[in-house]
Amino acid sequence: MQEYIQNRVLEIGNYIIEHMATVRSTAKKFGISKSTVHKDVTDRLYQLNRSLYADVHKVLEQNKSERHLRGGMATKRKYKGE
């Protein structure tokens, strides 16, 4: 793995933990695709730093369990005109 990819993977992992960020918001912040973020934090991060991977995995699982609530709130805001 090239060094710039390793640096990006570690930076993305730390960002997700610090901000409790979603894959979508992380992709927007770093200017890369959601699939790249997902690949970085699932495959590449596991190879580089397993403890960081475990922490990121917890955040992503929490986000996954809350996504139906976020979608409902977004729909509510949409139809309320906010």
Q: In percent terms, what proportion of residues is strand?
A: under 5%
Mean pLDDT: 93
Main sheet specs: none
Q: What structural class results from the helix and strand content?
A: mainly alpha
Helix content percent band: over 70%
Distance between the first and last residues' Cα: 45 Å
Tell me, briefly, the overall form. elongated
Helical segment count: 4
Q: Which sequence of SSEs, written as H and E, runs from N to C?
A: HHHH
Unreliable runs: none
Total separate domains = 1
Compute the number of strand runs. 0
Radius of gyration: 14 Å
Provide key terms for this protein.
0% strand; 82 residues; mainly alpha
Gist?
The protein has 82 residues and is mostly helical. It is built from 4 helices and no strands.
Word description of this protein:
The protein has 82 residues and is an all-alpha fold. The chain has one domain (3-80). The chain has helices at 3-19, 23-30, 34-48, 50-80. Helix 1 (3-19) crosses helix 3, helix 2 packs across helix 3 and helix 3 packs antiparallel against helix 4 (50-80). It starts with a helix and ends with a helix.
Spell out the blueprint of helices and strands.
Layout: H1 3-19, H2 23-30, H3 34-48, H4 50-80
